[in-house]
């Protein structure tokens, strides 16, 4: 793993920002964890997933409607990941640790693994955001070139065309390939994972087995091979595309910055960690209430990267504080007014990166 450090001797930006945010929560007498807004989402999304799953397995449904329900289930599972799993893995779902641990296991129910996700996302991605050579979220080479320091291959000319098709396979690759690769290599990209204890090994294999039982074996037994295959593909293509697009729009868009980590020499980022987070991250559709509800505040990605242990339900409020502090320190704040503009920016960026370098 490359040795990467930040210039944190003078953390004036983050100290000022954190003080203002703390004052807001104190003045409003609010906890930084989730509230009824988050818990009501859980009360809607979890039963919705169970009901759709039950309908698909036990009611005679026309094929076209069944496919639509599978796609809907994919959207619901993605929203559970954005809202419940994501906050819980960051410890921001509840002030009670055991509640966070239980809710974080929703990742395992959907086929992932909480332990690996926490290391990959909370530690590697949130610390070394957009640092090529360390951040696993931009390590799709040679399939895709996501920043200018990555090696170019001839197929990249067409990555703006095949990229979104590739994104649709995210959940299938995550659950059946990438988790196992990280598990057996005990490494996330170039970063060695902390050692898993016996309990985590048991949880890994048990949850993978339960996922196969509930999403493969039992549906095949109940519905037959062909109906299961079409439904499983529809569910996962919807789930994968939704997950990938939301996370790509946070960092791989125009105006966000990237840094290349030298694989031999130690490097020091010139900015403090918090400024690096602002420069490498972007918001999208911050005033769209439906998108904010569905993606669990991940459209407020700047706020999330600065305060990952604050629940997403508070991001619209602290958004104003973060913007004001960025203006005070003359730091560019990246934001796209709509999701369509963010998608267009991502498309333009991967198209430009697909061109052969001079």
From TrEMBL:
Transmembrane segments: 38-58, 64-85, 97-117, 161-181, 202-222, 228-250
Fatty acid desaturase domain location: 63-336
Signal peptide: none
GO molecular function, one term: oxidoreductase activity, acting on paired donors, with oxidation of a pair of donors resulting in the reduction of molecular oxygen to two molecules of water
Keyword Transmembrane: yes
Tagged with keyword Cytoplasm: no
GO cellular component, one term: membrane
Protein name from the UniProt record: Acyl-CoA desaturase
Organism in which the protein naturally occurs: Niastella caeni
């Amino acid at each position: 793993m490359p040795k990467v450090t930040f210039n944190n001797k003078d953390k004036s930006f983050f100290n000022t920002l954190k003080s203002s945010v703390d004052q807001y929560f104190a003045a409003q007498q609010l906890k930084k964890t989730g509230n009824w807004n988050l818990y009501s989402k859980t009360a809607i999304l979890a039963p919705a997933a169970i009901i759709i799953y039950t309908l698909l397995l036990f009611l005679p449904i026309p094929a076209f409607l069944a496919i639509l329900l599978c796609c809907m289930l994919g959207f619901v599972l993605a929203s559970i990941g954005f809202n419940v799993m994501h906050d819980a893995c960051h410890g921001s779902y509840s002030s009670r640790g055991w509640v966070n641990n239980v809710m974080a296991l929703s990742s395992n129910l959907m086929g992932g693994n909480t332990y690996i996700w926490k290391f990959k996302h909370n530690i590697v991605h949130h610390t070394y955001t957009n640092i090529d050579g360390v951040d696993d979220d931009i390590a799709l080479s040679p399939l895709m070139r996501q920043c200018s320091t990555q090696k170019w291959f001839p197929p990249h000319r067409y990555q703006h065309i095949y990229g979104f098709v590739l994104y649709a396979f995210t959940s299938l690759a995550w659950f059946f390939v990438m988790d196992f690769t990280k598990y057996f290599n005990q490494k996330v990209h170039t970063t060695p994972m902390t050692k898993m204890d016996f309990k985590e090994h048991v949880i890994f294999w048990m949850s993978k087995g339960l996922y196969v039982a509930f999403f493969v074996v039992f549906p095949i037994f109940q519905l037959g091979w062909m109906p299961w295959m079409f439904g499983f593909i529809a569910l996962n293509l919807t789930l994968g595309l939704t997950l990938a697009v939301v996370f790509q729009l946070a960092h791989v868009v125009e105006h966000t910055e990237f840094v290349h980590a030298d694989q031999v020499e130690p490097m020091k980022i010139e900015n403090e960690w918090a400024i690096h987070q602002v420069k490498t991250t972007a918001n999208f559709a911050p005033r769209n209430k439906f998108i904010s509800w569905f993606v669990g505040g991940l459209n407020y990605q700047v706020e999330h990267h600065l305060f990952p242990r604050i629940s997403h339900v508070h991001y619209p409020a602290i958004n104003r504080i973060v913007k004001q502090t960025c203006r005070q320190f003359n730091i560019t704040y990246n934001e796209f007014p709509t999701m369509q503009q963010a998608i267009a920016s991502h498309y333009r960026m991967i198209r430009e990166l697909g061109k052969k370098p001079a």
